[in-house]
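Problem 3 from the worked examples.
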Amino acid sequence: GWFYKKKVYYYVNHAIFSVHYHCFLFLLFLVLLLLDKLIPGDTFSLILLVIAPVAGIIYLVAALHGMYRQSFWLSLVKGIAISLLYVITLAVANVVLMISAFVGI
């Protein structure tokens, strides 16, 4: 919602988009995990490790472009910014959880 203040979208629109994108990511990771189990090998695992984030960014940019009806380049910039904020948020949450787990011991 922070990236789309100028247009009139309700919170529900952003929430549905977020759930839609996370469903895609979970399905992507499931397929890649199954492929990794079916085709063993370190080289193939490395290829899948590179494919996952690239496919996630490509899909996010395409979904942003389709949902919010803006130019491809603006969708690309916003998609990269949203992805970076998401990764930073996950990293901070993981550090907080690890610290709280160690303090609780």
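Problem 4, a separate protein:
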Amino acid sequence: MRDAGTVTPWSTIVPVTMAEEPTYVPEEDRERIVAYQKYNSLYWSEDRAVEIVRDAEDGTPLYVPRPKMIVDTTAHYLLKGLTIDLEDPESQSELNRFLQAFFDREAFLARFNIAKLKGVALGDWIFHITADPLAPPERRITLNTVDPAAYFPEYHPDDQETRVGVRLMEPWVDPADTSKTLVKVLYYFFDWQNPADRRVWREEAIWEVEDWWNQAKAKKYKNLLPLEPLDERITEIPVYHFRNAEWDGFLFGNSELKGVEKIFRGIDQAISDEEIALALVGLGVYATDAGRPTVNGREVDWVVSPGTVLEVPGATMIKRLEGITSVTPVQDHLRYLDSALKEATGTSDIALGVIDAQTAESGIALAIKFIPTLAKIEYRDQSGLAKLTQMWYDLTSWFRVFESVDFGDTLILPRIGEKLPVNHVQVFNELNNLFDRKIISAQFYRDECERRLGYNFPENIAKQILDEQIAQLEIMQRQMQIQASVAPPDSNGDQPNQSNNKNRVNES
């Protein structure tokens, strides 16, 4: 168990949860699994995501979907505009065709963005490379996402930054005996005691749930894949862990909702109180000095409804109490909490699309107001690009082993786009000024239009332009030849004046 006061990626969500820690995973991972479950519930505004005090017996709390707004906005800007391309796709068309076919088949960008969204909410997202050598060519390798709650890494005992093993665990039911509680574990590891041998070993087996992670105590139920090394050309464990909001010393990422759970609870509590207060104003709250009504000598509840007449024997007073007259203080408090939430999470109005036209037209003003969001995204972009670069570099080994496609020294490079919308008029003015002053070439002009504005020029555009210019020049030459043949030159060899005002005096 975590000591009181210890800061972890999950230390702020645990005190406001009501879930019991699972016993089917190692003790050091139980808090993490609970946090994944609660952040998932918090994102979807599920009931009992966090404890909300009910102010009336039948009052049901309201959950304002602020967690969803925070996560969706952050995930949108994180690695925004991601593309995966060859270093020089034009000169390596065959490799580019193979890579694009792999993208299309795996729907990589769509799946990555979905995994990223969940990862921003939970703190972690995982990709896993697998291969089936018996599948048809160009269909043997698959990129799968893995639930982070199924991911259990092992680290070098002397270096917590060096991962030496990974277990991917999921519950498993034996169709022949459904009474047993079992788990399926796919285990990758290095022989870290022999660093000269960089072979990756793999085993998949079914284990009894008790102590499945403890090699000394675990009880194997049956093998699925025997213990054997992967191809020697594959030198990295094919499981890639992406971490949101990394922090030095944390082996896992931090949820975007970490640290603001109590603000969510405050907003939900305030809006729930307001709803109950408004409901009571409508229904009314009554007071009387009479006792409770009785039926056959047994006390029953009061019934206050339209069209009913209350008979109150022995009462000297019955009246409707004065209710609230304004919810303005509650609304002011909610606006303050909402503002504090945006500041704490770096969610600027610009990121939410709240912007005036003047600011939108000013690139500098737009960038300055976007700084809070950019500040929390920039280093995450760098970390994500580094992890993607490693994953795609490793994938080239898998392509070589299972598809016989050799990328050689060709790099597969992930790139990201602009965070803010591009002002096309401003970019064109800038490029036009540079081109008119002969600072840039026409090719550089086109390259910038493709990179910054999304244009897609054909490869032979320069030749097309040159051919058009030659054709226009030939037309002009033919027109000049026709004009020269209409009237012969005068005695001085000059072409006669053929204008329609040749006989008028030049008054200039």
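Solution to problem 4. Residues 54-58 have pLDDT under 50 and may be disordered. The longest helix spans residues 363-402.
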